[in-house]
Protein backbone atom coordinates (compact mmCIF):
# COMPACT_ATOMS: atom_id res chain seq x y z
CA UNK A 1 0.00 0.00 0.00
CA UNK A 2 1.07 3.61 -0.59
CA UNK A 3 1.07 6.44 1.97
CA UNK A 4 -2.66 7.05 1.52
CA UNK A 5 -3.43 3.39 2.21
CA UNK A 6 -4.41 2.57 -1.39
CA UNK A 7 -3.39 -0.71 -3.00
CA UNK A 8 -0.22 -0.46 -5.08
CA UNK A 9 -0.23 -1.76 -8.65
CA UNK A 10 2.64 -4.25 -8.89
CA UNK A 11 4.33 -4.18 -12.29
CA UNK A 12 6.94 -6.28 -14.08
CA UNK A 13 8.67 -4.87 -17.16
CA UNK A 14 10.54 -6.68 -19.95
CA UNK A 15 12.80 -5.40 -22.72
CA UNK A 16 16.19 -6.43 -24.08
CA UNK A 17 17.52 -2.87 -23.82
CA UNK A 18 18.63 -2.05 -20.28
CA UNK A 19 18.52 1.71 -20.86
CA UNK A 20 14.86 1.52 -21.88
CA UNK A 21 14.08 -0.65 -18.85
CA UNK A 22 15.73 1.89 -16.58
CA UNK A 23 13.67 4.73 -18.05
CA UNK A 24 10.50 2.67 -17.73
CA UNK A 25 11.24 1.98 -14.07
CA UNK A 26 11.83 5.67 -13.38
CA UNK A 27 8.55 6.56 -15.07
CA UNK A 28 6.47 3.95 -13.25
CA UNK A 29 8.05 4.30 -9.82
CA UNK A 30 7.42 8.05 -9.96
CA UNK A 31 3.70 7.33 -9.72
CA UNK A 32 2.45 6.83 -6.15
CA UNK A 33 0.06 4.05 -7.20
CA UNK A 34 2.61 1.94 -9.09
CA UNK A 35 5.67 -0.03 -8.05
CA UNK A 36 8.04 -2.06 -10.27
CA UNK A 37 8.60 -5.46 -8.63
CA UNK A 38 10.65 -7.14 -11.35
CA UNK A 39 12.42 -6.79 -14.70
CA UNK A 40 13.46 -9.16 -17.47
CA UNK A 41 15.54 -9.01 -20.64
CA UNK A 42 13.85 -11.78 -22.64
CA UNK A 43 10.69 -13.84 -22.74
CA UNK A 44 11.96 -16.81 -20.74
CA UNK A 45 13.24 -14.55 -17.98
CA UNK A 46 9.90 -12.70 -18.01
CA UNK A 47 7.99 -15.94 -17.41
CA UNK A 48 10.33 -16.82 -14.53
CA UNK A 49 9.95 -13.40 -12.92
CA UNK A 50 6.16 -13.40 -13.38
CA UNK A 51 5.95 -16.86 -11.81
CA UNK A 52 8.02 -15.74 -8.84
CA UNK A 53 6.40 -12.38 -8.03
CA UNK A 54 2.85 -12.69 -9.47
CA UNK A 55 2.52 -9.05 -10.64
CA UNK A 56 -0.76 -7.28 -11.37
CA UNK A 57 0.46 -5.90 -14.70
CA UNK A 58 3.24 -6.75 -17.15
CA UNK A 59 4.66 -4.37 -19.75
CA UNK A 60 6.67 -6.33 -22.28
CA UNK A 61 8.41 -5.59 -25.54
CA UNK A 62 7.06 -7.73 -28.37
CA UNK A 63 10.43 -8.43 -30.04
CA UNK A 64 13.02 -9.95 -27.70
CA UNK A 65 15.75 -12.62 -28.04
CA UNK A 66 15.44 -16.27 -27.00
CA UNK A 67 11.64 -16.03 -26.56
CA UNK A 68 9.63 -13.07 -27.79
CA UNK A 69 7.02 -11.15 -25.85
CA UNK A 70 4.10 -12.74 -27.69
CA UNK A 71 5.08 -16.28 -26.64
CA UNK A 72 5.73 -15.05 -23.11
CA UNK A 73 2.31 -13.34 -22.90
CA UNK A 74 0.59 -16.53 -24.03
CA UNK A 75 2.46 -18.64 -21.48
CA UNK A 76 1.85 -16.19 -18.63
CA UNK A 77 -1.87 -15.87 -19.37
CA UNK A 78 -2.19 -19.66 -19.38
CA UNK A 79 -0.41 -19.71 -16.03
CA UNK A 80 -2.43 -16.92 -14.40
CA UNK A 81 -5.39 -15.18 -16.08
CA UNK A 82 -5.33 -12.43 -13.44
CA UNK A 83 -2.06 -11.01 -14.75
CA UNK A 84 -2.82 -8.21 -17.21
CA UNK A 85 -0.31 -7.79 -20.05
CA UNK A 86 0.51 -4.69 -22.09
CA UNK A 87 2.53 -5.05 -25.29
CA UNK A 88 5.23 -2.44 -25.90
CA UNK A 89 5.44 -1.73 -29.62
CA UNK A 90 7.13 0.37 -32.27
CA UNK A 91 5.48 1.99 -35.27
CA UNK A 92 4.86 -0.37 -38.18
CA UNK A 93 4.35 -3.50 -36.08
CA UNK A 94 0.62 -3.85 -36.82
CA UNK A 95 0.56 -7.63 -37.25
CA UNK A 96 2.69 -8.15 -34.16
CA UNK A 97 0.23 -6.04 -32.17
CA UNK A 98 -2.61 -8.25 -33.40
CA UNK A 99 -0.62 -11.35 -32.46
CA UNK A 100 0.06 -9.96 -28.97
CA UNK A 101 -3.63 -9.20 -28.39
CA UNK A 102 -4.66 -12.63 -29.61
CA UNK A 103 -2.03 -14.15 -27.31
CA UNK A 104 -3.69 -12.50 -24.31
CA UNK A 105 -2.47 -8.90 -24.01
CA UNK A 106 -5.21 -6.53 -22.92
CA UNK A 107 -3.52 -3.42 -24.30
CA UNK A 108 -0.58 -1.96 -26.16
CA UNK A 109 1.37 1.27 -26.18
CA UNK A 110 4.10 2.66 -28.39
CA UNK A 111 7.56 2.69 -26.83
CA UNK A 112 7.72 6.41 -27.59
CA UNK A 113 4.61 7.12 -25.51
CA UNK A 114 4.85 9.84 -22.89
CA UNK A 115 4.99 9.24 -19.15
CA UNK A 116 1.35 10.09 -18.59
CA UNK A 117 0.16 7.62 -21.22
CA UNK A 118 2.32 4.81 -19.87
CA UNK A 119 0.95 5.20 -16.33
CA UNK A 120 -2.58 5.65 -17.69
CA UNK A 121 -2.25 2.38 -19.62
CA UNK A 122 -1.11 0.51 -16.50
CA UNK A 123 -3.96 1.88 -14.39
CA UNK A 124 -6.51 1.16 -17.12
CA UNK A 125 -5.60 -2.50 -17.71
CA UNK A 126 -5.27 -3.02 -13.95
CA UNK A 127 -9.05 -2.48 -13.89
CA UNK A 128 -9.38 -5.14 -16.64
CA UNK A 129 -10.20 -2.46 -19.21
CA UNK A 130 -8.46 -2.65 -22.64
CA UNK A 131 -6.01 0.12 -23.47
CA UNK A 132 -5.17 1.14 -27.04
CA UNK A 133 -2.25 3.48 -27.71
CA UNK A 134 -3.37 7.03 -28.48
CA UNK A 135 -1.23 6.97 -31.63
CA UNK A 136 -3.31 4.12 -33.08
CA UNK A 137 -4.60 4.82 -36.59
CA UNK A 138 -7.99 3.63 -37.74
CA UNK A 139 -6.42 1.11 -40.12
CA UNK A 140 -4.94 -0.76 -37.15
CA UNK A 141 -8.17 -0.37 -35.17
CA UNK A 142 -10.05 -2.06 -37.99
CA UNK A 143 -7.48 -4.85 -38.17
CA UNK A 144 -8.03 -5.46 -34.47
CA UNK A 145 -11.77 -5.75 -34.96
CA UNK A 146 -11.20 -8.47 -37.57
CA UNK A 147 -8.99 -10.43 -35.16
CA UNK A 148 -10.10 -12.92 -32.52
CA UNK A 149 -9.34 -10.37 -29.78
CA UNK A 150 -12.61 -9.45 -28.09
CA UNK A 151 -12.60 -8.13 -24.53
CA UNK A 152 -16.21 -7.00 -24.85
CA UNK A 153 -18.28 -10.02 -23.92
CA UNK A 154 -21.65 -8.32 -23.48
CA UNK A 155 -23.11 -5.88 -26.02
CA UNK A 156 -24.39 -2.62 -24.55
CA UNK A 157 -26.19 -1.08 -27.50
CA UNK A 158 -29.23 -0.21 -25.40
CA UNK A 159 -27.33 2.44 -23.44
CA UNK A 160 -26.71 4.61 -26.51
CA UNK A 161 -29.23 7.15 -27.78
CA UNK A 162 -29.98 7.41 -31.49
CA UNK A 163 -27.89 10.59 -31.71
CA UNK A 164 -24.99 8.86 -29.99
CA UNK A 165 -25.26 5.95 -32.41
CA UNK A 166 -25.12 8.40 -35.34
CA UNK A 167 -22.03 10.05 -33.89
CA UNK A 168 -20.40 6.67 -33.26
CA UNK A 169 -20.93 5.65 -36.88
CA UNK A 170 -19.49 8.92 -38.19
CA UNK A 171 -16.44 8.64 -35.92
CA UNK A 172 -15.88 5.15 -37.32
CA UNK A 173 -15.96 6.75 -40.78
CA UNK A 174 -13.08 9.03 -39.68
CA UNK A 175 -15.19 12.19 -39.55
CA UNK A 176 -13.93 15.03 -37.37
CA UNK A 177 -16.09 16.70 -34.73
CA UNK A 178 -16.53 19.68 -37.04
CA UNK A 179 -17.62 17.44 -39.95
CA UNK A 180 -20.01 15.51 -37.70
CA UNK A 181 -21.52 18.76 -36.47
CA UNK A 182 -22.24 19.93 -40.00
CA UNK A 183 -23.81 16.60 -40.97
CA UNK A 184 -26.03 16.42 -37.86
CA UNK A 185 -26.67 20.19 -37.52
CA UNK A 186 -24.91 20.31 -34.16
CA UNK A 187 -22.22 22.60 -32.81
CA UNK A 188 -18.67 21.27 -32.63
CA UNK A 189 -18.82 21.71 -28.85
CA UNK A 190 -21.97 19.57 -28.63
CA UNK A 191 -20.37 16.83 -30.71
CA UNK A 192 -17.24 16.84 -28.56
CA UNK A 193 -19.38 16.62 -25.44
CA UNK A 194 -21.24 13.64 -26.91
CA UNK A 195 -17.93 12.02 -27.86
CA UNK A 196 -16.70 12.24 -24.26
CA UNK A 197 -19.99 10.78 -23.00
CA UNK A 198 -19.70 7.90 -25.49
CA UNK A 199 -16.12 7.17 -24.42
CA UNK A 200 -17.27 7.12 -20.80
CA UNK A 201 -20.15 4.75 -21.54
CA UNK A 202 -17.88 2.41 -23.48
CA UNK A 203 -15.23 2.67 -20.75
CA UNK A 204 -12.52 3.36 -23.32
CA UNK A 205 -9.88 6.06 -23.43
CA UNK A 206 -9.16 6.65 -27.12
CA UNK A 207 -10.85 6.95 -30.51
CA UNK A 208 -9.30 3.61 -31.46
CA UNK A 209 -10.98 2.05 -28.45
CA UNK A 210 -14.29 3.58 -29.48
CA UNK A 211 -14.01 2.18 -33.01
CA UNK A 212 -13.04 -1.30 -31.80
CA UNK A 213 -15.87 -1.35 -29.25
CA UNK A 214 -18.40 -0.14 -31.82
CA UNK A 215 -17.51 -2.75 -34.43
CA UNK A 216 -17.21 -5.61 -31.95
CA UNK A 217 -20.65 -4.77 -30.53
CA UNK A 218 -22.46 -4.24 -33.83
CA UNK A 219 -22.78 -0.47 -33.57
CA UNK A 220 -20.91 -0.07 -36.85
CA UNK A 221 -20.39 -2.47 -39.73
CA UNK A 222 -17.19 -2.45 -41.73
CA UNK A 223 -17.59 -2.39 -45.48
CA UNK A 224 -15.30 -4.89 -47.18
Automatic annotation (TrEMBL):
TM helices/strands, residue ranges: none
Protein name: Response regulator transcription factor
GO biological process, one term: phosphorelay signal transduction system
Modified residues (4-aspartylphosphate): 61
Every Response regulatory domain range: 10-126
One Pfam family per UniProt: GerE
UniProt keywords, alphabetically: DNA-binding, Phosphoprotein
InterPro entries linked to this entry: CheY-like_superfamily, NreC/VraR/RcsB-like_REC, Sig_transdc_resp-reg_C-effctor, Sig_transdc_resp-reg_receiver, Tscrpt_reg_LuxR_C, WalR-like
A molecular function (GO) term: DNA binding
Signal peptide: none
